[in-house]
Amino acid sequence: MSRFFATGSDSESEESSSADEITPKAPGTTLKQSLLLSDDEEDTKRVVRSAKDKRFEELTNLIKTIRNAMKIRDMAKCLEEFEQLCRAFLKSKNIVDKEGVPSFYIRLLADLEDYLNLLWEDKEGKKKMNKNNAKALSTLRQKIRKYNRDYETEITAYKENPQESADEEEEKEAGDSGSSSDSDDDDDDDDDGVSAKAFLKKKPESAPDASKFLKSSKGSGESSSSEDDDEGGWGSDPVGSGSESSDEDQGKSASLAVVFLKKTHESEKSADKKVSKRKKIKKEHLEEEPEEGEGEEVEGGWEKVKGGVCLVKEKPKMFAKGTEINIPVVVKKLNEILQARGKKGTDRAAQIELFNALAAITAENNLGQGILVKIKFNIIASLYDYNPNLAAFMKPDMWKKCLDCINELLDILFEDNNIFIGENIAEDSENLAISEQPFRVRGCILTLVERMDEEFTKIMQNTDPHSQEYVDNLKDEGKVCNIIDRLLDYLETKGSTEEICRVYLRRIMHTYYKFDYKTHRRSLGLPAESKSEQDQDESEGEDSAIIMDRLCKFIYAKDRTDRIRTCAILCHIYHHALHSRWYQARDLMLMSHLQDNIQHADPPVQILYNRTMVQLGICAFRQGMIKDAHNALLDIQSSGRAKELLGQGLLMRNMQERNAEQEKIEKRRQVPFHMHINLELLECVYLVSAMLLEIPYMAAHEFDARRRMISKQFHHQLRVGERQPLLGPPESMREHVVAASKAMKMGDWRTCHSFIINEKMNSKVWDLFPETQRVREMLVRKIQEESLRTYLFTYSSVYDSISMHTLSEMFQLEIPTVHSIISKMIINEELMASLDQPTQTVVMHRTEPTSLQNMALQLAEKLGSLVENNERVFDLKQGVYGGYFNRDQKGSYQQKHGGYQRGGYRNQNQNNY
Amino acid sequence: PSFPRVFTTQAASMASTAGTLDSPVKQIQIEGMVVLKIIKHYQEEGQGSEVVQGVLLGLVVEDRLEITNCFPFPQHTEDDADFDEVQYQMEMMRSLRHVNIDHLHVGWYQSTYYGSFVSRALLDSQFSYQHAIEESVVLIYDPIKTGQGSLSLKAYRLTPKLMEICKEKDFTPEGLKKANIGFEHMFEEVPIVIRNSHLINVLMWELEDKSTVADKHELLNLSSSNHLEKSLQLLMDRVDDMSQDIVKFNTYSRNLSKQQQQKHQYLQRRQQENAQRQSRGEPQLPEEDINKMFKPPQPPPRMDTLLIAGQVNNYCQNVKEFTSQNLGKLFMAEALQGHN
After folding, report:
1. A729 phi and psi angles, rounded to 5 deg
2. Close Cβ partners of A564 (under 8 Å, ≥ 6 residues apart)
3. Starting from the edge strand earliest in sequence, which strands make up the sheet with A801-803, in order?
4. Disulfide: which of A169, A470, A544, A760 matches A516 by Cβ 3.0-4.6 Å?
5. B312, B118 Cβ separation under 8 angstroms
6. What does the buried/exposed string (b/e) look like for A533-567 if buried means 16 or more CB atoms within 10 Å of the residue's CB?
């Protein structure tokens, strides 16, 4: 039905626009009327016209102010404006030369002179004037006298016949253009006459034509009636301005102008009629809106009018006056609005407005909470719809509106226990009416909140993290958490387990990465520094660890989708790790077996996994588990793409590897800035761990041919440091670590210590830990121990024996520690020595091979592999030919060469070839 | 380091002599002055693993090559790229001719670092020398050994076999196999005789008497590990290279055999199909160029491997020589100690 009507209205609008076109054109045969067709003139001399318009508008504006000043006898102002006018007139000299002096200008000059003379003669009035004004009057009078001498002829002509001269001007002007545009007119007429088809073809043009016509008529209307204040009034109030201008003409304008105005008036009327017709249609069938919208795009010129009318006038009259507003009517209305949703050309902002209005009406009429809830759902949905592109983020204010709406919705839901909402309630089985039965409304608040949360993330992603704006936006996170908390409360009583799991995950996602300072402080035994009430509230709240534990455990038990559980586990581990509960975190990680199958997860989960692993590694480091820390961080750091793997930024890559589409997807995965893990901290932790592991290892295996690297990354940094032609004091974190490594290689723990822990490194890295002091102490201890080991490895060949006292003094370690370290080394056969208990000395056995021996061993090993390779070549040859031709031959071949003594290698591997 | 090139005029002038040698050079007779000049050149300009090079001048007399003079190539860096070596050599030889000194190009000399000289560059430049001037040789001077008390100066030239191969530039495995050349037969050493005038000999005797014991007996130095370590290090590097080459060759031959198999299968299938077609009375499939379908993999050049093997051999000889000498010294030292 709506479709039918829509097309009807479309054709109607066509007709009306055609009528518009014909109205001015039909009488265009006579010269007099052709002058009305200023649109043609505009077509031919558009450029000149616009310049002229601009200048003349300037002039008329100035004139207007002068006339106003005249009315209130403000001579000072008059003088000022007059001077401006003269300047403006000079500027438009070009145009004036072409067009002749405009009549309105002459008129003003004449009027002003008369007026000034009048004032001058009025001695009494002059006396009353203040000094300024009097002075201005005299100056102005002199000026205008001088000025008017140039235009004497025109002014006298005007004074003789004030009206005619003005019209003549106009006529002349229009006549010029009219004659030039005559041929065009004829053409147009012919076209009109030829066929309907030709006309139809021209249709799109007709509308702009018409509008142009209207516009220009406005321009000339103004120029003819200089006192017309209501410049822009025409567009907004067509009828009014028409009548006004005709009123103000007051006989100043000639009959022609009247005719002209009448003509426009007529066309206006037709346009007006059309608009009103439209209005009527609209009132009857609101659904038509989208189609109308599409029509609008074609019509172009009419859009504004309609939009204004629709929005301004429609809203209050959502329902016909007198209709009893009850639930079915509102629901029907709601559906009407809803049908427009998502269609092309629907004004989304208007839709939101409509919904809001509807909600207001509903509330006003006390239709019950059910319907209100339903409308609220729709408002939020349409707020989300406002952005057509899913990738783009919502405007923060839109999002805030949405936030408020959700809050209100939750208010209602909490207030009224009688409302059931759910996504699986069918539309038909909804119960919106106030009755004994509880309300049943279709809709899922959880989805809405989730979407809201996602939009929040998107907003954060798209805000510059170093701006105040980001901080402001981040403040809203509290509100988001608040809503999630409320929703959680709500769903805990009403929702299904699935929904609870989902909302729990949301809650977890907002909790896991935040360090719980108050618990930390409490555990340190410090009194909570309560600065404000809010702080106090917070400190009284539950420990985040307890919350995490409760929520996660629920999810572990109840969740059926793997994804939520995975996320929950990862968040839980992250949270544990963040709060230095290393063993819990590690056990959870190991028990979950996530490491085995995380590569099958989707990228966001993988990013979360990476974040968790990194956090776990950092946690291990803080606890002094250097090896664990290194292992946890190895994967992330060795790739060199830590930034990308953690979702903290895109790597610069050329466009071949990634097209724009992929880039967009990757951008969407980025973690908002406030959740970032400090990459420098990460790298530093990794490098320091690698240093503590690698340097003793390197010292121990100096001559080992098959020495493998523990950390490639670390070696790379070392090499970079070596390549430096001039070694200055370390600047960056990496340089510090490299310098420290070098010191450690020599067993110089003091230098190493000063490189790792100093002010620069503190501010860059170590102060980022919550328990800075403890970490630093641990680090010093580790450096001492590892330096001792390195020292022993490197210099044991120099010593026959060394006293443990000396070692203990050298490395500032207690003797038992030194003892235990050396014992461990001896047990592991890393150090060929024995401990002499009574004298507390280490006696070296000196059984390590000399460097030459080491080399010889290496060479032997290399030769072994060379022989192996050589054998392989030989085998290949033999195998190939043997297999290729026939077995017998191979046998004889082998027999022939049976005398060859070949290594065991061949015998072992013979079957492989 | 850049290796010396033979320039054309010299080659042309020698072309007449080339090939007209009645009997190949069997011995090289070097003037004492040449030896001293070479040693001095290294002393002044070479240090560490840097090598110095120069041109040998002399004459062929019967079956011996007399090297009577030499001059060094100036060291020049990358900066003065416009330095014209050929021009310098020409100038040098012209000047020498003016003072009536032998000016005929008979080869070149080069210092070495722990006996590492067998390289592609040396091969190429010696080939070009020998190609132009048949009797030319390369003198290898080992400053380290000389420093230990025994002058080490060796003359090498390419064997005729290797000359053939280099001429054909066929370094594929097959080519080398056909030529039946091993690393032992790449270079041949020519015995050297150092000749001094009688006056110099007399002077030498005199000097010998005057010199102190300490000056003379540096060859009794017992320290060995440093030299051996260096040698081993170099040897190891070469062995690594060798391993790499072998792995390369291994992959090549594996690829080749794989392809052979494919080719064979393809041929068989084609044969079968043709047989079927024949039985059905259809025309046979046209023969296609099998080599086009199965492009044989690029065989790795084997010359480098040969050279490496030669170098390894060289190192081994060096180490062997050194250790045997040192062992003797050690026994001597032991005996001395026991005697005291």
Report:
1. -65, 145
2. A501, A502, A505, A555
3. A801-803, A841-844, A833-836
4. A544
5. no
6. eeeeeebeeeebbebbeebbebbeeebeeeebbbb
Collapsing DSSP to helix, strand or coil, A898 comes out as coil
Question: Distances in Å between the alpha carbon of A60 and those of A67, A72, A84, A264?
Answer: 10, 19, 12, 22
- Start-to-end CA span in chain B (Å): 51
How do residues A709-748 score in pLDDT, each as one tens digit?
A: 888 888 888 888 888 777 788 888 888 888 899 899 888 8
What residues pair up with B58 in beta bridges, in sequence order? Answer: B67
A850 contacts in B (CB within 8 Å)? 225
B229 to chain A: which residues are within 8 Å by CB? 851-852, 855
- Separation between Cα atoms, residue B225 and residue A747, nearest integer Å: 27
CB contact burial A116-149 (16+ within 10 A = b; e otherwise): beebeeeeeeeeebeeebbebbeebbebbeebbe
Q: Which residues pair with B29 in a beta bridge?
A: B66, B193
- Please tell me if residue B225 touches chain A, with a CB cutoff of 8 Å: yes
Report pLDDT digits (tens) over A552-574.
Answer: 888 888 888 888 888 899 999 99
Q: How far is CA A688 from CA A786, B214, B257, in A?
A: 12, 54, 50
Q: Are A256 and A167 in contact (CB under 8 A)?
A: yes
Are A872 and B235 in contact (CB < 8 Å)? no
Instruction: Please give the Cα distance from A890 to A858 (Å, whole number).
Output: 36
Residue labelled with tokens 């909302």 = A503
CB-based contact, B229 to chain A, within 8 Å: yes
**Cβ-proximal residues to B154 (8 Å cutoff; 6+ apart), any chain:** B139, B140, B142, B189, B192
Q: Cα(A537)–Cα(A548) distance, rounded to whole angstroms?
A: 19
The amino acid at residue A20 is: D
B242: which chain A residues are within 8 Å (Cβ-Cβ)?
866
Q: How many residues does chain B have?
A: 340
Cβ burial of A250 (10 Å; 0-12, 13-18, 19+) is: exposed
Among the listed residues A299, A409, A406, A265, the one whose alpha carbon sits nearest the alpha carbon of residue A10:
A299
Residue numbers of A between 880 and 909 with CB closer than 8 Å to B: 880, 884
Please list the residues that pair with A422 across neighbouring strands: A442
Q: Rounded CA gap, B132 and B110, in Å?
A: 19
Distance separating alpha carbons of residues A240 and A441, to the nearest angstrom = 49
Q: What is the token pair recorded at A269?
A: 């009327």
pLDDT, position A824: 92
Q: What is the pLDDT of residues A777-796, one digit of tens each?
A: 999 999 999 999 999 888 88
Please name which of A511, A526, A534 lies closest in space to residue A771, comparing C-alpha atoms.
A526
> Residue A851 class from Cβ within 10 Å (0-12 exposed, 13-18 middle, 19+ buried)?
middle
Across A533-537, B40-44, B137-141, least confident range: A533-537
Q: What residue has token string 């110099």?
A: B200
- Residues A359, A382: contact at Cβ < 8 Å? no
Q: Is B55 on the interface with A (CB under 8 A)?
A: no
Q: How far apart are the CA of B236 and the nearest CA of chain A, in angstroms?
A: 6
